[in-house]
Amino acid sequence: MQQTRETDRLIALSASASAGFVAEMLGLYGRLINGRLADTAVVGRLLAADVAEMRVWLDEAGAVTGALIFLLLSPAGMQALVQGAFDPLEPSSRHLAGERSAAAVYGWACAGATPTARRAVMQTWSSLTSERFAALPFFARGATEAGRLALVERLKCLPVDGTDGLYRAAPPVFPRRRAA
Fold first, then answer.
1. What are the pLDDT tens digits along the chain (180 aa)?
2. DSSP state at residue 171
3. 104-112 sheet: strands from edge to edge
C-alpha cells in the first residue's frame, strides 16, 4: 500500500468554490463527526453570497484532509445563535451578513482527518480570531468530544453561558504600549 505524504497545501475557496471540493469537504466532515452539516447546494449558495468562506487542505494526491468553513453573522444571526434559534442546516439569510456588516463569526465546520490537517485548521482558526476577525466575537460548537476538547484546550475558547455547547473564542489580548 503506497502512502501519500500529507502537505499543508491550503486552498482558500469562496465564491469560486467548485461543487466537487464542497461535496468532498462535506463528506469528510460527515465521516469525522458521524453526522452532517448542510447539503452542497446550501454551502455553495452561502459561499456565492459572500457570507461564508471555506479553507480546504489537500494531501499530495489532491484528496481533502481538512476543512474550515465559517459564516459571517448579522446582529440577528448572533442573537439567534446564542438563543439556540440558529439553523445550521439551512441558515436564514436574515442571520447572515457580508464582511463589512458582520456582527460575529461562526465556525460552521472544522475538521481534520490527519494530525497535519488538524494542526493547520487550528492554526488558521487562531489566525482568523486574533487577526482578521479580532474585533468580532467568534463562535463555534464542538460536534464531537474531540472537537469540544480542541475548542477548550487548544483554542482556549470559553463556554457561552445559557447555551447548549456553544463556545466563544477568547478575545485577543494586545500588549499595552508604554508611554514614551
1. 333 344 445 555 444 456 677 887 788 877 777 776 788 888 888 988 889 888 888 888 878 888 888 999 999 999 999 999 999 999 999 999 999 999 999 998 888 888 888 888 888 888 888 888 889 999 998 888 888 888 888 888 899 999 888 999 877 655 555 655
2. P
3. 6-13, 52-59, 64-73, 104-112, 138-141, 166-168, 158-159
